[in-house]
From TrEMBL:
Gene3D superfamilies: 3.40.630.30. One of its GO terms (molecular function) is acyltransferase activity, transferring groups other than amino-acyl groups. Keywords: Transferase. Residues 1-167 form the N-acetyltransferase domain. The keyword Transferase applies. This is GNAT family N-acetyltransferase. Pfam families: Acetyltransf_1. InterPro entries: Acyl_CoA_acyltransferase, GNAT_dom. It comes from Spirosoma telluris.
Amino acid sequence: MTITQATEEDLPLIRDIAYQTWPNTFGEILSPAQISYMLEMMYSLDALTTQINEKKHVFLLAKNTDTDEYLGYVSYELDYTGQPLAKIHKIYLLPASQGKGVGRLFIDQVGAIALAHQNTRLGLNVNRYNKAIQFYERMGFLIVGTEDIDIGDGFLMEDFVMEKPLIP
Ligand SMILES: CC(C)(COP(=O)(O)OP(=O)(O)OC[C@H]1O[C@@H](n2cnc3c(N)ncnc32)[C@H](O)[C@@H]1OP(=O)(O)O)[C@@H](O)C(=O)NCCC(=O)NCCS
């Protein structure tokens, strides 16, 4: 397995992985209409291009080097809102690639990159009903807050804010 930084050329692939992963992740949490709305908002090629070029989000891709198949992605932003905090915006693995240790590798890699940039915490938002919360707790994240975010069209994101201190 390799982890490499994505470029603009990889954005269609990232979008495809999201479209394969979201129904499985959020099918029992969000309405089909909200899933479609959020996918368009966050994963249209325009939205992804803005994230990578203007918002300074960095995407990493995991690839199975035996089969050449991509397994999933993580995106992060260093110095989030001027704080020494690396914000993980997205972390998604294809359903068949979950539970095999790749998520842990992503968190470890982003943590190492963050520390090398003097960022001393990892932060993220997670839907309050997503079982990924248990994964994050296992990785050393703690719930530090609750946020309800109005994303338009009558839809709400009901999140926990989680953080993990990084130890140099
Ligand atoms: C959440 C996700 C990134 C985790 O990555 P993963 O590769 O499946 O997790 P790992 O195999 O690296 O698991 C690491 C540890 O967390 C534990 N863990 C993972 N998911 C868990 C869960 N749902 N409940 C309890 N523990 C869990 C594992 O048992 C493992 O523990 P161990 O080190 O003691 O063996 C991945 O499952 C995923 O993409 N899920 C769907 C998308 C999603 O919800 N993304 C998060 C959006 S905020």
